[in-house]
Amino acid sequence: MHENGTLIRVAQLKKHFPVAGGLLGRQVGVVKAVDGISFEIKRGETLGLVGESGCGKSTAGRSILQLLRPTSGQVYLEDKELTTLAPDELRRLRPRMQIVFQDPYASLNPRHPVGKIIGEPLIIQGMMQRAEVHDRVAELLELVGLDPAFVRRYPHEFSGGQRQRIMIARALSPSPDFLVCDEPISALDVSIQAQVVNLLQGLQERLGVTYLFIAHDLSMVKHISHSVAVMYLGKIMERAARQTLFEDPCHPYTQSLISAVPIPNPRLEQIRQRVILKGEPPSPARPPSGCVFHPRCPLAAGECSEMVPELREVRPEHFVACHFADEHGGSKILQAPVVRSSAN
Amino acid sequence: MPPILDVKDLVTRFDTLDGVVHAVNGVDFRLEEGETLAIVGESGSGKSVAMMSILGLIPSPPGRVESGSAIFQGPGGPQDLLRLSPKDLRDVRGAQVGFIFQDPGTTLNPILTIGDQISEILTRHMGMTAQQSRNRVLTLLEDVGIPDPELRYKSYPFQLSGGMRQRVGIAMAIACTPQIIIADEPTTALDVTVQAQVVDLFKRLRDKMGVAVIWITHDLGVVAGLAHRVMVMYAGRAAEVARVNDLYEHPLHPYTLGLLGALPRLDAVGSRRLVSIDGTPPDPLISVSHCPFAWRCTHAFPRCWAEAPRLTTVAPDHKAACFYDLDKGRPRDA
Amino acid sequence: MAGETIPHQADSMLSMRRTFRDRLGYLGRLLWRDRSGVIGLTMILVVILAALLAPHVGLQDPLAQNLGESRMPPAWNAGGSWDHPFGTDSLGRDLFSRTIYGARVSLTVGLFGVVIAAALGMVVGAIAGYFGGRIDALITGPINLILSMPYLLFVVFIAAILGRSLLNVILIFGITDSPIFARVTRGEVLRIRESAYVESAVSAGARWGRIIFDHIVPNLIGPLITLATFEMSAMIFYEAGLGFLGLSVPPTVPSWGNMLAEGRKYLSSYPWLTTFPGLAIMFTSMGMNLSGDWLRDVLDPRLRRARR
C-alpha cells in the first residue's frame, strides 16, 4: 500500500465549506477551499506547500491532520487511511502527527505555565507518568534552545520567537513522525525567523521528523524544502523537487511567482526580468471556470476557460497542471525567471 | 543643494503603564531631492515612530517628541517640521508630504466612496472646485492602474481588493504632487504577486514625478530593487547608512551583516545554514548608554559596553555606528 | 550549533523585566490612572472590616431591646446621646450597632449568592457554548425566558413560598441570578472555542472535558469576576428589597432591608431609622460598582503586555 520511504500520501483531497445565506440560512453556495490535491512526502523530508492568500494551503494542512474532516479524498499516514477512522482510533494516532501554528501570540493558552503546555500531549495520551513527563519537558526545552528553568513561566513573558520554540517543543513531545508547520515564521522578525528555521532543520536532521511546511514566503520555502508544491485557489499548479522547481518552473503561475519575489541583491534586482500578472487572486467562493488561473495567465487561450487541466507528470517527478505544459517547455513565459547570481 | 529633509537628533518617548518606552533614541538622516531612502528595521527599531514623529502623527499623550529638528525645504522656504503648529503641519501633510500607510483597509474611511476621499484632499489643499477635483481624481485613478475609474470613483473601500486599496492609498499620497512621499510598509500586507504590481507601479510614478521617497520596511528584498540609499535602524537608533549597492555588498555594521545573512534567497546556490543573530530584539523599556546591539554581537568588546557608538563615516558615503572594524577584523582605531 | 541556543546573556534581559518592583510599579500606575478604583476598593474594604470586626469592637448588642430608650435621635441632635450615635429604633435597639451588623448579612448574601450563581451559570453556559446546536438551544431557551421575567417579582414569589431564612435568601439569589452568568459564559466560550490554543489541544487529542475545564474556563475568569462584582452589588440591593417587603431574614436579625421595613412607618417622624441603613446600602453598592469598573479595565486582555 505504501512505497518504501513514503510517510504521507494525499489523494484527491477536497475540503468544501457550505455558504449559508438568505433569510432562512440555507446553503446558497460552496467555498472550495481545497479542491482535489494529491502529493506524497517521503519520510524525513520536507514538502513546502506554497501559495498566496486564499489558495487553501492552511485548510489543506488542517484537513490532512483531520482537524477539519475532509469533504472527500484520502490521506495515508504510512498505510493507515485517516479520513475514515473513528474518533477514538484517530485520537490514538494523534501522537504521530502534530502541528505548529502561525500565530505565536494566540496558540499558547495564556493561563497555562510553559511546562504544562509542553507536557500536555503526553498527559492526554497517557504516555508517561508525571515524573517522567517532567524530565521529558526539560529535555524538550533544551532541545529547542530554551532554559529548562522556564518551566514555570507563562507565555506572555516570552517573545514571539521563544513562544514559537515552545510551540515546537510541545509538538515534538509525543515524538511525532509528521509535523505540519502552518506558516510558523510569518509573524516573526527576520532575524528570529532564521533562528526558528535553523532549529526546525536541525531537529529534522537529528530526529528524522517529516515536515509539511506551509508558507507564502517562497525564499524560505526554497531554503528548507526537499520538494515543493505550488497551490492556487485550492488546486496544485505544479509539484517538483526543490531544485527542479526553481530552475525549471513549467507552470505560468510558478514562473510569475518566482519572478515576483524580491531578491536582496541590488544589481540583480535592477536587471531582472519579471512577469507582472494582471489582477489579483480571486475569491475561492467564486472560482473561475476551467483552469482557475486563466484570468491572470499571460498564456491563456481558448480551452483554458473551459477545461480543467490535469496535474500531469511532464518530466520525471515533475508534475504540472497546465494545458501547454510539455517536455519541450511549451508553458514557459520567461527563459530564466531566476538569474543565478555570479557574485554568490 | 540642501537636502529636502534634514533630520537631526530625533528623540521620541512614550509614557505607558509599563514605564517609559524609548522608541526613538537620537536619529539623524538626510533625504536628497529625488532620491529614495529606505529605512529598514525589525519590530522595535523605531522606524515607523520616527517618521510619524516628523509628521506630527504621534498621539500626544502618551507620546512625546523630546528633541530633534526636521528641516524641510518646502516651497515656502525651509521649515522645521517639529516646530510647526498643528495647523501648519496639517497643511504640509497631504500637500507637500504624502503618506502611504501599511494597511489601507483600516486607513481608508469605510463610509466614504474612494472618489470622495481623494477629492477631499484636493479641495482642501489645492483649493480646487468640485469639477476640477473630480477630473483630477479620475486621472489619478488611471495613473495608479485602477480599471474603470468612472465606476470605481463611486466604490466604497470594502468593495475593493487589498491591492486596489493600496493603489488608492498611493493615489491619495500623490494627489497634490508632493515633494516627499513617506511610505510605511505599504506592501507588507499584500500577496507577493500583488506586491510586485504595486512596487512596479510605484517605481514608474516615482521616476515620472521625480519625488523624494522614504520607504519604511523590514523587507530587504524590496529595498534592493527600489532604494538609492538605505538606513538600517536598531533600538531606536541608526546603525548604518549607505548607498544601496554598498550596503548589500559591503555591510559595515554587525547587525546589517547578520540581517543579510539571515535571509533565505532565491539566488542562493546550494544549501547553507542561515546565519541567525542570537538573542532577541531589545526591550524598548530599557534605556542603555552603551551599544544596544552588544548583547547579540559576536564582535562585542569592552568599549561596546562602556559607551554608545555614534554614527560616523567609515567609508566614502557610508556611515556606521560601531566601534568594530569588520574589514580589518578588529576594533576601530579611535 | 550557533543560533540554536540562546546565550543566557541575552536572556538576562527577560529576567530583568519581571522583578517585583516592576510589577508593583505597574499596579501603582494602574491604580493611579483610575483613582475611582482606589476609592471603590477602599469603600469595600471598610464594609468588609465592619462586617468582620463587628462582634469584637465593643458595640452595643444589636438585639438588646430597651423600651425606655426607644426612638432616640442621633447623637448630634437634641435628645441624643453618644451612647447611641445613630439613635435607637422603636424597640430601643442601638442603630449604630445594627447598621454595622447589617453588613454581615448583606456581604454574606452577596458573596455566597454570587458564588452559587456563578458556579451554576458557568457550568450551564459552558456546556451550551461548547456543544452548540440542539443542546445550546435547549439551554438558552429557558435562560432567555427567565431573564425576560421581572426579576424582583420572581424573587419575591419564590421567597414567599420558601419562607424567611438567610439560607433561603442565598439560595434564591444564587439560582435566580445564574442565568446572567450562563449567558455571559456562553458568549465567552463561543469566542474562546475558536482560539488557536484550543485547536492545539484538539490536535493533542484532548476530549471535550479537558478542553472546557482546563482550557476554556481559566480564560473566562476575567469577564466573570467583573460580572460577579456587579451582581454582588445588585444582590445587596435586592436583599434590601426583600427585607423591605418582609421576606428576607427573620426580623430579629439586623439586616439593612429589615431596618428599612421597620423604619418605613416612621418616615416622616423619625427619618433616621431609614436613613442610616439606606446610606449603608448606597455606600456598599457604590464601592462595588466602582471596583467593578476598575477591575473590568484591569482585566481587559488589551492590557496583557505582549512582547515582540
Structure explained in plain terms:
The complex is a heterotrimer of chains A (344), B (334) and C (308). With 344 residues, chain A is of the alpha/beta class. Chain A folds into two domains: 6-232, 3-Layer(aba) Sandwich (Rossmann fold); 244-339, no CATH class. Chain A has ten helices and twelve strands. In chain A, the strands form two sheets. An eight-stranded mixed beta sheet of chain A has the order 6-7-8-3-9-10-12-11, sandwiched between helices. Chain A has a four-stranded antiparallel beta sheet with strand order 2-1-4-5. In chain A, strand 11 and strand 12 form a beta hairpin. In chain A, helix 5 (160-172) packs parallel to helix 6 (190-207). Chain A is globular, with a radius of gyration of 21 Å. Chain B is an alpha/beta fold and 334 residues long. Chain B has an eight-stranded mixed beta sheet with strand order 6-7-8-3-9-10-12-11, sandwiched between helices. In chain B, strands 2-1-4-5 form a four-stranded antiparallel beta sheet. Chain B has a two-stranded antiparallel sheet with strand order 13-14. Chain B contains twelve helices and 14 strands. Chain C is mostly helical and 308 residues long. Chain C has a domain at 104-308: Orthogonal Bundle (MetI-like fold). In chain C, 69% of the residues lie in helices and 0% in strands. Residues 1-17 and 303-308 of chain C have low confidence and may be disordered. The chains are: A alpha/beta (344), B alpha/beta (334), C mainly alpha (308). Chains in contact: A-B, A-C, B-C. Chains B and C meet through loops of B and helix 1 and helix 2 of C.
Give the arrangement of secondary structure elements.
The complex is a heterotrimer of chains A (344), B (334) and C (308).
Chain A: E1 6-21, E2 26-42, E3 46-50, H1 57-64, E4 72-77, E5 80-81, H2 87-93, E6 97-100, H3 114-125, H4 130-143, H5 160-172, E7 178-182, H6 190-207, E8 210-215, H7 218-224, E9 227-232, E10 235-241, H8 242-247, H9 252-260, H10 266-271, E11 312-315, E12 318-320
Parallel strand pairs in A: 3-8, 3-9, 6-7, 7-8
Antiparallel strand pairs in A: 1-2, 1-4, 4-5, 9-10, 10-12, 11-12
Chain B: E1 5-16, E2 19-31, E3 36-40, H1 47-54, E4 63-74, E5 77-80, H2 86-95, E6 97-100, H3 104-107, H4 114-126, H5 130-143, H6 149-153, H7 162-174, E7 180-184, H8 192-209, E8 212-217, H9 220-226, E9 229-234, E10 237-243, H10 244-249, H11 254-261, H12 302-306, E11 312-315, E12 318-320, E13 324-325, E14 330-331
Parallel strand pairs in B: 3-8, 3-9, 6-7, 7-8
Antiparallel strand pairs in B: 1-2, 1-4, 4-5, 9-10, 10-12, 11-12, 13-14
Helix pairs in contact in B: 4-5, 5-7, 7-8
Chain C: H1 8-17, H2 20-33, H3 35-53, H4 95-131, H5 133-148, H6 151-162, H7 166-193, H8 196-203, H9 208-216, H10 221-244, H11 256-264, H12 272-298
Helix pairs in contact in C: 3-4, 3-12, 4-5, 4-7, 4-10, 4-12, 5-7, 6-7, 7-10, 10-11, 10-12, 11-12
